Input
Amino acid sequence: VKRVGGIDYISPAITGRTTVKYKKDEITSSIMGIEPDVFTNIAGTLEIEDGRFLAGTDRKSVVIGGNIAKERFDEDVGVSSVLYISGERYTVVGVLKKTGTSFTNFDDVIFMPFDEAQSMFSGTMAKDEITAIRLTVKEGEDADAIADEINVILLAAHHVTEDEKDFSVITATFINERLNEVTGILSIFMGAIAGISLIVGGVGISNTMFMAVLERTREIGVLKAIGATEWEIQTLFLVESSLIGFLGGFAGLCVAFVLILLISSLAGIPAVFIPWVAVGALLFSAAVGIAAGVFPARQASRLDAIEALRYE
Output
């Protein structure tokens, strides 16, 4: 694979899970063995919060993800802390910033030099076996064409056909396409739920306003008797229905905001609040209220004053 033209950086990786002990706590964590000198040029999402990344000369040293440092153990793990991984003593030389939202999430990963990971997992992996190859292409090169070439090379190396292959070649384009597909499906699903909610909400507001017209029939008669026009009565009920829609939208926004904060804290994903979306949602809710109140308002405005005053 290294001989393929257009590759800028390339690094093998070994991944596995094993026990990690810190003081009295013991967990099972993901381990990734990498070549430090080139890996930082490939994994662009990696940022050091404390300490440094691995160096080519490091031995028995590790860099830990944000969750490993702050959440997985009862006590925080920092630079110079000692971890026992598969019974071997390792010193923490760096802590990564939490990413949370990236496609490749390293928050729960412990990084160590490639050779040491290879030795650690030698009992479960073949001598020359690797889990992944991470690479970047040079600027201006066709990443998809390079991916196709790598796919052909690996098919030949593994002696398998396309239907039988036991590996995947994944590009940024592939990831974006899958994410767009998932986003599209979620958008349709959420749109359908929103549409049903709007219909149910609109029917609810309309029923409420029809009941209000019945309960306030005598009041409408009095208003007409003192000179209120059909337009004024209609406007009165439309304003009321728009307020119901607005308040319903505001309540929905408050619930959504609380849920977003809750999910954000549980999943480690930063919450994003867009003011114009909130304003738009409130205005749209008011518009739904107005639309739902049109027929009740027209019914109220067309009541006969004398009949309305006689209504019991």
Q: What stands out?
A: DSSP finds nine helices and eight strands in the chain. The mean pLDDT is 85. The two ends are 88 Å apart (CA to CA).
